[in-house]
Amino acid sequence: MNRKELREKAMGLPLSAGVYIMKNKDGEIIYIGKAKALKNRVSQYFGSQNHHTEKVRQMVQNVDHFDYILCSSEFEALVLECSLIKQHLPKYNILLKDDKGYSYIRISDEAWQKITFVMQKNDDGAEYLGPYMSAWYAKNAVDSALKIFGLPSCRKTFPKDCGKSRPCLNYYIKQCCAPCSGKVTQEEYAGRVREAVDFLKNGGGETIRRLTGQMNTAAENLDFESAAKLRDRILAVRKISQKQQVVATRLPEQDAVCMMTEGEDAAFAVLRFAEGRLYDKEDFLLKDCGREADGAVLRGEFLKRYYTMRKSPPFIVLDAVPEDEALLSGWLSEQRGKKVKFLYPQKGEQQKILEMCRQNAAECLAQSHGHKGHELSALDELAGLLGLSAPPEFIESYDISHLMGSENVAGMVVFRSGRPLKSAYRRFAVKGFDGQNDYASMQEVLTRRCEEYFKNKDSGEGFGRLPDLILLDGGKGQVSAVREVLVRFGLDIPLYGMVKDSRHRTRAVTDEGQEIAVSSKRQAFTLISSIQDEVHRFAVSYHRTVRKKHSLTSSLTEIDGIGAERAGSLLSFFKTLKRISEADIGELLQVPRMNRPAAEAVYRHFHPSEENDNENPSD
User: What is the largest CA-CA distance in the chain?
Assistant: First the structure.
């Protein structure tokens, strides 16, 4: 069927709840969805494509026909939708890879034993601890044991590699006993391994009690060196235990779920708690969701897919409300057999857990894009602070620089995904007036910026791309001046000013109404401060260049026959005054707008001694 025929069929559907099944020309199921009113929902796919994401547009292009199943309620439709998706795994539904498997901790069977994390138990004579359902927990347990007891995490084999190299950094930060350098005996090394295995089997509390007894015995025997080493080991175990307590919760069982987006991709992180402690972490990267994708829809789809793979806890902490919140809660409650409640904390313990979850989602997304997690986390924090619908990928910032109204210039810097994009930096010389008027300067610069957008918008690059956020170095006055420009050009771009305190440090951001303090949002504050410092540096640097060039031009115009245009041509051609002074007449004649009298005048200006020699030749 073509799109017109598909729409006609969709318009004939009942206004009842149900599930619709999209198929391609080969009869393969490519998408399954549910609807409260089938006619309204399905007909949207085959109407205007302007409001669809790219992924939905591609799906619609591949639809040849569709089927539907009527349900008695929207809740029944949700249950059926989840069941069918799990069964058929359609191409255009959000599908999560369930890579859960048993994990083990392996203690090798050799003289110099090694403790490692593995995904499979082999019949190789080694000792295995586990199985563990959470690979994340097993990995962290191994990492903690190696650090506490100073065991190597490298791939070197002992005694083959003993004494053959210098210790690595881990030795100097007291996280490895450096058997590679021969600094530890096999007996001492084996003792460390036994203590690490005991720690992995019995936990930190039992290990601390045992080590404390050994430390007291060593002290009584006046073996203070051994006692000091045991004391340090006890402190290391306690430090690890304190870190684990930080990610504990008063709720006995819960999940925390957060989403981060960048471009057309999204990442979800799930932190899972049981008995009040974090026991698992999972990350999921969703590619090509569409830049315009609705966050509530993505969250709702993710929760449906995730909890078809995992058992739901009684509490799920979320960073925002998902689509079909009540339906999802009811479906999860029915699955669990007990009430499942969504929480949206704004402060306290749960908000800290949510922030840690958000950072994990940011790190997952950042690694896939070659960025750093804290950069995306800062953008997400900034979006929340300013009430933006999504983290801003492109941020443009502007600043004016002048000296008592002379040589007015402006700098534009661009940050992409929280990083400076220096290839997109631009400089503006303010031409519309003389004197000091920062508001008029901002208006002129943004007017020229908007004009360039409409000239180049088909390219989608450089000036042909609009920013997701504009930050001005200034207060409400600058914001009001630029707002007029954006309104005149019909552009709806979030616009804020960056306000400094008496020490020229970032204090707040402002629109035309009130100021928004940023000091409480650490990552957003750091990002805004770096943007403000960078745009100020760039504008001031350009102003100094202009002033220097003006000064050089003025010195050249003192030469007979050299006006402002010829002075500018000389500087553009030779770049520096020194090179101009070293040029001969032939080189000077190569400069545009130069003639022989002018070239000779410049040469005489920088070589007065030669002129005197010609006028007063020696005998």
Answer: 120
DSSP bridge pairs for 410 = 400, 428
CA distance linking residue 322 with residue 140, whole number of Å: 31
pLDDT digits (tens, 9 = 90+) for 58-74: 899 999 999 999 999 99
Q: Is the pLDDT score of 456 beyond 60?
A: yes
Q: What are 315-365's pLDDT values in tens digits?
A: 999 999 999 999 999 999 999 999 999 999 988 889 889 988 988 898 888
Provide φ and ψ at 22, rounded to 5°. -85, 135
pLDDT at residue number 619:
42
Residues recorded for the chain = 619
Hey, what long-range contacts does 591-599 have (CB within 8 A, 24 or more apart)? 591/566, 593/565, 593/566, 593/569, 594/566, 594/569, 594/570, 597/561, 598/561, 598/562, 598/566
Pinpoint the alpha helices (H) of 65-134: 74-88
Please measure the distance between the N-terminal and C-terminal CA atoms of the chain and give it in whole angstroms: 106
List pLDDT tens digits, range 198-217: 888 776 677 778 778 888 88
By the 10 Å C-beta count (0-12 exposed, 13-18 middle, 19+ buried), 397 is classed as: buried
Strand partners, 286: 266
Question: What are the residues whose beta carbons fall under 8 Å from the beta carbon of 8, sequence distance 6 or more?
Answer: none
3 state SS of 605: helix
Nearest to 9 by CA among 57, 62, 50, 66: 66
Strand partners, 182: none
CB atoms near residue 38 (< 10 Å): 24
φ, ψ (nearest 5 deg) of residue 128: -120, 135
All structural domains of the chain, each given as residue ranges with its CATH number in brackets, are 3-88 (3.40.1440.10), 103-246 (no CATH), 253-370 (3.30.420.10), 394-548 (3.30.420.340), 557-615 (1.10.150.20)
Question: Quick one: 258 exposed, middle or buried, by C-beta within 10 A (0-12, 13-18, 19+)?
Answer: buried
Report field, pTM of the whole predicted structure over 0.70: no
Tokens encoding 65: 């026909």
The C-alpha atoms of residue 445 and residue 428 are separated, in whole angstroms, by 7
**What's residue 397's pLDDT?**
95
